[in-house]
Amino acid sequence: MATCWQGLWAYRFYLIIFFLPIFLLPLPILVSTKEAYCAYAIILMALFWCTEALPLAITALFPVILFPMMGIMDASEVCIEYLSDTNILFIGGLLVAIAVEHWNLHKRIALRVLLITGVRPALLLLGFMLVTAFLSMWISNTATTAMMVPIAHAVLEQLQSTQASQDPEEGSNNPAFELQEQSPQKEVTKLGEKDNTEVLPLPPATSKPRPHPNQEQLRFSQGMSLCVCYSASIGGIATLTGTTPNLVLQGQINSLFPHNDNVVNFASWFGFAFPTMIILLLLAWLWLQVLFLGFNFRKNFGIGVQSEEQKQAAFNVIQTEHKLLGPMTFAEKAVTVLFVFLVLLWFTREPGFFPGWGELAFPKANGGSMASDGTVAVFIGIIMFFVPSKFPGLIQDPKKPGKLKAPPALLNWKIVNEKMPWNIVFLLGGGFALAKGSEYSGLSKWLGDKLTPLESVPPPAIAVILCFLVATFTECTSNVATTTLFLPILASMAQAICLNPLYVMLPCTLSASLAFMLPVATPPNAIVFSFGGLRVSDMARAGFLLNIIGVLVITLAINTWSFSVFHLDIFPSWAHSNTTTHCLLSSVNSTTPSP
Questions:
Q1: How far apart are the C-alpha atoms of 248 and 484, rounded to whole Å?
Q2: H helix runs in 384-522, sequence order
Q3: Of 301, 318, 360, 584, most Cβ neighbours within 10 A?
Q4: Nearest to residue 569, comparing CAs of 488, 489, 502, 490?
């Protein structure tokens, strides 16, 4: 019997893939409508995403097959969604991020900031959190965490080994705390599924035996690890390209409301999400400091506690790593200039409070800009393919001794092909296809009609409940899948009760990044957990309250400064449809809260 159960468990994914579509068949057979057909496709994809019986990107291709077969959408209309403007923005933004990572510019920034913040315990936590959050705004959360965790533990090793040598009664405690489990080159699995990056191998474990640290050192190490993975998730919410759920929101808005006047762009998102990120980051720093360092703030800030030898030893680690990078190369300078230029173009394209270069140089007939944020990102990305990495200068051709050749460009296709998470392109496209299918089939209208009783519930209460729901759901499944499934439903609900759709879609998108409790919730969590020194209970205890803090901060943001950014106090004309004929266009919605 045991062997039978083991065999069934081993084949569980095959069984799910085979029987789940059959189990759900009564829905489209008994209710022969386009709404039921679309619901069947959505439920099937949601369950496949939750169980991960198929790779997420493969599940995202289902609309290409199901929607034409069910008569919901023409195949050509479905396929267009897989390379929308939002997907182009994702690709263009990642081209720049790959260049930053390839030329080690992110490591130089990280070490420079840590040299400024110093190595006092509380300031060391803050320094790592600020650096990680900033880098995570622009490059992959996973790559940021994989780079920062070894640096953090190297600093701890020097800081605490010095303490051990000064205090022989403590024993020779080594603060590396068994950074890896015994199997070398252990890989963190499923990294590409929740944070749009490839699987990254972690550094091999050191073979030198290390005594166990004392309790205080262990807790500081735990706090340091968690501060890195949490700040990577928090930092990603600040920019439109920082994490994939943000792009899902923009794509869903553009797909469901094609006349939205580009309400969600890089500048407007930054104005809303950056202050939210800063507040949440500082509160997370305070919470981790209290939880792992205690309430003795004098000791936490190293006042009269740390010896100069301890501080200098840890500082030397950072300084040595920084010196090993050498002076900035031409490639690093070129990438820096192009990166800053990209950000400036994003902010000034269509800022809203003054005419941007996009509106002036490439105006549309009905207002706005012909160029999009994706246009800008691809423009800078293409430039990186023909800017040389050395200038002036020639290099020896290794294949032809004695021959000179030009230096390679900042980017080449081999580098991009290896580091570009192509699976996320399909995952994003599948989400946009689902949203468009819901609209074409009438499922959105049906859901909106069923949700009209929510009109009597105060909108702030709706937003808080939905944020907690999404934050809980994202602990167990991909944040991309979570936003893909929830946002079209939330849009229909908002239309039904004459509420600005952004009032519920924005906070729920941010809540999808609040994956703090479980190692499997997001790749940064998995990376720090695999380094050792953490138990699931440690992460759950720290993440539980941080989830609550995150929802409260997001609620504060959506009810205060977001009103001036997105005009949430009116039901916008672009959200008007057949489901909202009872709503007054461009008037203050009586059910919408005032800032």
A1: 7
A2: 413-419, 422-441, 443-450, 459-473, 479-496, 501-511
A3: 318
A4: 502
Tokens of 345: 């173009």
CA neighbours closer than 13 Å in the CB half-sphere of residue 345: 20
Above pLDDT 70, what percent of the chain? Answer: 83
Q: Hey, what are 484's tokens?
A: 């893909």
Dihedral sign (CA 457, 461, 463, 469): negative
pTM: 0.81
Spatial separation of the C-alpha atoms in residues 510 and 274, rounded to whole Å: 11
- Computed over every residue of the chain, the mean pLDDT equals 81
Higher pLDDT, 366 or 318: 318
| pLDDT tens readout for residues 306-345 | 556 666 776 787 888 888 888 999 999 999 999 999 999 9
The token pair that represents 211 in the structure block: 């005594």
Q: How far is the C-alpha of 439 from the C-alpha of 492, rounded, in Å? A: 9
Asked if 434 contacts 45 with a C-beta cutoff of 8 angstroms, the reply is yes
- In whole angstroms, how far apart are CA 292 and each of 167, 222, 535? 22, 7, 14
Instruction: State the average pLDDT over residues 88-116.
Output: 87
Q: What is the DSSP secondary structure assignment for residue 82, as one 8-state letter?
A: G
Residue whose C-alpha is closest to residue 205's, from 191, 221, 185: 185
The answer to whether 394 and 407 have CB atoms below 8 angstroms apart is yes
Q: What is the pLDDT of residue 190?
A: 38
Lowest mean pLDDT among 146-160, 228-242, 479-493: 146-160
Q: Please state, as a whole number, how many other Cβ atoms lie within 10 Å of the Cβ of residue 483.
A: 31
